[in-house]
Amino acid sequence: MAFEGLTERLQNAMRKLRGKGKVSESDLRATMREIRLALLEADVNFTVVKDFVKQVRERAMGADVLEGLNPAQQIVKIVDEELTKTMGEEAVDLNKAPKIPTIIMMVGLQGAGKTTTAGKLALKLKTEQNARPLMIAADVYRPAAIDQLVQVAQGIDVPVFQLGTDVNPVDIVRQGLAQAEEKHNDYVIIDTAGRLQIDEQLMDELANIKELAHPNEILLTVDAMTGQNAVATAEGFNDKLDVTGVVLTKLDGDTRGGAALSIRAVTGKPIKFIGQGEKMSDLDVFHPDRMASRILG
Ligand code: GDP
């Protein structure tokens, strides 16, 4: 289960305060040390942990919490609120174009769940907004990638624009956008190539697609299971492409929590969706407050 270790350790850290009518500064210090270790063990970015602990400590010291009524409960509340803040406070909507189509460019490393997420998103738009999305297959390096997108699209009954693997991806996107224009699709979802690691050539290609398509949304898909690697990946993509949002996948697995808790704070970019399974319906809007509650258990 996701966050299992983190939840248990945070609960244990705060349980020790329970039943104390008054919490001393040294009690608080001990609790904060445990919280710090729990977060580091969950693979949360070091600077994020440092800032988080500082905020919680200052708030706990500041507002007569330690001497007030039910200090333990108040500290739990502060931790909850600061976790929420670290993850971005509010849910952030998909960007929308003033005039159709809204263009969404999916980027990410191979295996992160980009193609699956493209399909999930298309289905979500279709069912929730009655939208008519068109998907564009712009990963020309792996023939299997196009087949996979076509299969995903067939399963949810959404059209795919593809020109096989012999055409330059920028040209594919250009022609795909022309088709969307002609057919009045209200959303275009571009599935781009991924690699096992960030490389210059891929980034240049993605930058070229971005320049041509002027996407309203560049959604980076990252695998929550990869912890700090997911954060480094997010930084790499963001530096080059200035992404507009992140999709965190595989939160149904036993991820430790580092990616969920670090990405927003490190990159400044919001997590917009979370993937919680392999089915097409397993995509949810990311709510920082709900995620904080889930982490606290
Ligand atoms: P891509 O290479 O980034 O396009 O990745 P794919 O979309 O092919 O996904 C790679 C694998 O991850 C596939 O087996 C997907 O079914 C799986 N996957 C994607 N998202 C999720 C998720 O949220 N949860 C789980 N459990 N598996 C996922």
UniProtKB/TrEMBL annotation:
<keyword id="KW-0963">Cytoplasm</keyword>
<feature type="domain" description="SRP54-type proteins GTP-binding">
    <location>
        <begin position="101"/>
        <end position="297"/>
    </location>
</feature>
<comment type="function">
    <text>Involved in targeting and insertion of nascent membrane proteins into the cytoplasmic membrane. Binds to the hydrophobic signal sequence of the ribosome-nascent chain (RNC) as it emerges from the ribosomes. The SRP-RNC complex is then targeted to the cytoplasmic membrane where it interacts with the SRP receptor FtsY.</text>
</comment>
<feature type="domain" description="AAA+ ATPase">
    <location>
        <begin position="100"/>
        <end position="278"/>
    </location>
</feature>
<keyword id="KW-0547">Nucleotide-binding</keyword>
<feature type="binding site">
    <location>
        <begin position="191"/>
        <end position="195"/>
    </location>
    <ligand>
        <name>GTP</name>
    </ligand>
</feature>
<keyword id="KW-0378">Hydrolase</keyword>
<dbReference type="GO" id="GO:0048500">
    <property type="term" value="C:signal recognition particle"/>
</dbReference>
<dbReference type="GO" id="GO:0003924">
    <property type="term" value="F:GTPase activity"/>
</dbReference>
<keyword id="KW-0342">GTP-binding</keyword>
<keyword id="KW-0733">Signal recognition particle</keyword>
<feature type="binding site">
    <location>
        <begin position="249"/>
        <end position="252"/>
    </location>
    <ligand>
        <name>GTP</name>
    </ligand>
</feature>
<feature type="binding site">
    <location>
        <begin position="108"/>
        <end position="115"/>
    </location>
    <ligand>
        <name>GTP</name>
    </ligand>
</feature>
<dbReference type="GO" id="GO:0005525">
    <property type="term" value="F:GTP binding"/>
</dbReference>
<dbReference type="GO" id="GO:0008312">
    <property type="term" value="F:7S RNA binding"/>
</dbReference>
<keyword id="KW-0694">RNA-binding</keyword>
<comment type="similarity">
    <text>Belongs to the GTP-binding SRP family. SRP54 subfamily.</text>
</comment>
<keyword id="KW-0687">Ribonucleoprotein</keyword>
<protein>
    <recommendedName>
        <fullName>Signal recognition particle protein</fullName>
        <ecNumber>3.6.5.4</ecNumber>
    </recommendedName>
</protein>
<comment type="subunit">
    <text>Part of the signal recognition particle protein translocation system, which is composed of SRP and FtsY.</text>
</comment>
<dbReference type="GO" id="GO:0006614">
    <property type="term" value="P:SRP-dependent cotranslational protein targeting to membrane"/>
</dbReference>
<feature type="domain" description="Signal recognition particle SRP54 helical bundle">
    <location>
        <begin position="2"/>
        <end position="87"/>
    </location>
</feature>
